[in-house]
Structures are given as structure tokens and as C-alpha cells.
Design the sequence.
């Protein structure tokens, strides 16, 4: 009796599973592997039902009207079930491989899109920088020359004061224009490469942050040139890491080590400041921009930091091609 009850439970469960499998067929877009697994589940239900009929017929000495499968059919149904399961599972493996491939393709196309966006943004910056430098720059320079020429003329005290003020304002405008144009697209980066551009960046920054000693080591990198996109990405990423260390770390020392190793470049930016928890939701876009820029050129990025004065270490590895 217990066996009969257990068989009924198993039949109910198998019918339930087969029913769900049938309902999911449409959702799986009639995937052949799912159809085969569903058929196998239905066949298993048939077998269980047959076992039940056998047991019932044994208990009632053949007085039930239930149709009982002949033993050879039972074996064939078993073979068919195993076949459907085996082929179905094999095909699921193929579907999973296909899905993994699609996921990989999706990630690659995302990276390509990201790198196209970054490239377009950099090109735009370069165009604006060039327009400012080559268009507005000479105009301001000629205003400055005219003001200087006027200052040589005999003038009364008021006129001289106005012109001296004008000369000061024009000089400031020229300085600020050069800075804006340089921030948009550093000319030194295009002309001399990332190591020298970073050197200039650090030299400009150091006097403004006397509390932090910045050390930049670029052995073997000074004359190394590589793909422009990669140079720009590396430059922007390292500048942001330096900015972060100066802005947030309160560090006494900041070291930037840059090394070329064959067609790979490694950069390590380390500070001995307060550190932070990289798992907490960042307030700014700096770190996420760094991650997406490095990912767009298939580089590696590791960030090691924890709050409590342990400092922050960031390592980057990218290929030059
Ligand atoms: N070197 C660092 N030392 C200490 N904290 C840092 C450092 N770099 C980043 N952080 C922390 O991570 C946060 C996110 O940085 P980021 O994404 O660059 O945004 P933002 O600089 O605009 O705040 C910062 O607000 C800061 O709390
Ligand atoms: Mg930042």
C-alpha cells in the first residue's frame, strides 16, 4: 500500500514537472533541446503510470480494467526516454555554449562602442583645442601687441592706467586660453608622448600641493610612442588617479611608476593617504570612467585600498597595440 501511495505521489510530481515543461516550450522559442527534455519527462510519466497499473493489477489479481504495457514496450519506452534526455542535455550544452559566445560578442561590441565614444570625445576635444589655440590665440596676441604699442605712445596718467589694465587682462586671457586648450587636448601629449605629458602635468601640479611629494618614474618610457587612443586613455587615467590622490587621500607621498615591458605598459600609482573602501558607491564619475576607459582597450586594472590610513595602490596594464 505504501508503495502504491509513493507511486501516486511520484506520478503527480512527474505530471506537474511535465506540465511546466510543456508550458515553458513556447518561452524557450520551441528550442529542440527543451522539446526533447519535455518528451522525456512525458515518457517518464507514462512509465510511472504503467508501474502504477502493474502494482494495482497485482493487488487486485488482474480485476482492474487498467491497460498494462507489455514488458518489451516498457523497455523501448525506457530507451526512448534515455535517448531524449541524452540528446536534449547534449543540445542544452550547445545552447549554453552559444549563449556564452553571444555574451562574449555583446561584451566585445560594448567595448568597441565605448572605445568609439571615447575616441569621438577625444577628437572633439582636439578640434576645439585647435580652434581655440590657432583661432582665438593669434587674435588675442595681436590685441596684446597693439596695447603694448599704444603704451609706448605719450599718454596721460588715466590713459596709461587703462591701457596697463587692458594689457594685464589680455595677458591673463592668453594664459587662460593656453590652459583651456591644453586641458582639452595636451599638445605635449600629441607631440612627445605620454611620459613627457605626465611629467609636465606633475611639474605644474607640484607647486600647488606642497604637502604631497609627487614622484614620477618613467624609465624607458620617455621616447616611447604608441597608438594615440591608448596614449590619451593612459594619460587621462593617470591624471585622474593623481587628482584623486591629491584631492581625497591627504597623502604625504604619491608615487607614479611607469614601465614598458615589450608591447605592454604597466603603471602603478600609489599613495600613503587615508585610503577608502572601493566597494562603497562612489559619488563621482572618476573611478568608473577609469574602469571603462581601461576596459575599452582590454587593459587590466586593480585597485587596492581600505579606509584607515593604509593608502591606495592602483595598477594598470595595457598593450601598446
Ligand atoms: N587615492 C584616494 N584616496 C582616498 N580616497 C579616494 C582615492 N581615490 C578615490 N577616493 C574616494 O573614492 C571616491 C570616488 O572617486 P571618483 O570616482 O574619482 O570621484 P570624485 O573624485 O569626483 O569624488 C572619492 O570621492 C573618494 O572618497
Ligand atoms: Mg576623482
Sequence:
Amino acid at each position: 500500500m505504501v508503495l502504491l501511495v509513493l507511486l501516486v505521489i511520484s506520478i503527480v510530481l512527474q505530471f506537474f514537472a511535465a506540465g511546466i515543461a510543456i508550458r515553458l516550450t513556447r518561452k524557450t522559442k520551441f528550442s529542440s533541446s527543451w522539446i526533447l527534455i519535455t518528451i522525456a519527462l512525458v515518457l517518464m510519466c507514462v512509465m510511472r503510470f504503467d508501474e502504477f497499473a502493474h502494482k494495482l493489477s497485482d493487488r487486485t489479481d488482474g480485476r482492474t480494467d487498467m491497460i498494462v504495457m507489455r514488458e518489451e514496450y516498457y523497455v523501448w519506452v525506457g530507451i526512448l526516454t534515455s535517448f531524449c534526455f541524452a540528446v536534449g542535455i547534449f543540445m542544452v550544452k550547445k545552447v549554453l555554449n552559444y549563449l556564452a559566445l553571444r555574451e562574449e560578442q555583446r561584451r566585445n561590441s560594448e567595448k568597441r562602442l565605448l572605445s568609439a565614444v571615447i575616441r569621438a570625445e577625444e577628437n572633439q576635444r582636439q578640434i576645439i583645442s585647435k580652434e581655440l589655440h590657432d583661432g582665438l590665440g593669434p587674435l588675442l596676441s595681436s590685441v596684446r601687441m597693439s596695447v603694448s604699442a599704444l603704451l609706448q605712445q605719450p599718454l596721460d596718467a588715466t590713459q596709461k592706467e587703462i591701457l596697463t589694465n587692458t594689457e594685464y587682462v589680455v595677458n591673463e586671457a592668453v594664459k587662460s586660453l593656453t590652459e583651456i586648450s591644453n586641458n582639452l587636448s595636451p599638445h605635449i601629449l600629441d607631440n612627445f608622448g605620454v611620459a613627457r605629458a605626465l611629467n609636465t602635468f606633475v611639474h605644474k601640479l607640484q607647486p600647488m600641493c606642497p604637502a604631497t611629494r609627487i614622484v614620477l618614474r618613467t624609465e624607458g618610457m620617455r621616447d616611447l610612442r604608441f597608438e594615440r587612443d591608448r596614449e590619451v586613455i593612459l594619460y587621462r587615467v593617470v591624471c585622474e588617479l593623481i587628482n584623486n590622490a591629491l584631492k581625497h587621500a591627504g597623502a604625504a607621498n604619491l608615487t607614479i611608476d611607469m614601465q614598458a615591458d615589450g608591447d605592454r605598459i604597466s603603471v602603478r600609482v600609489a599613495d600613503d593617504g587615508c585610503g577608502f573602501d572601493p566597494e562603497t558607491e562612489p559619488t563621482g564619475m572618476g573611478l568608473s570612467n577609469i574602469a571603462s576607459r581601461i576596459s575599452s582597450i582590454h587593459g587590466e586594472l586593480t585597485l587596492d585600498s581600505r579606509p584607515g590610513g593604509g593608502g591606495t595602490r592602483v595598477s594598470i596594464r595595457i598593450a601598446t597595440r
Q: What stands out?
A: The two ends are 74 Å apart (CA to CA). The pocket of magnesium ion (ligand 2) is lined by residues 240, 243-244, 284, 286 (CB under 6 Å). The first strand starts at residue 213 and ends at 217.
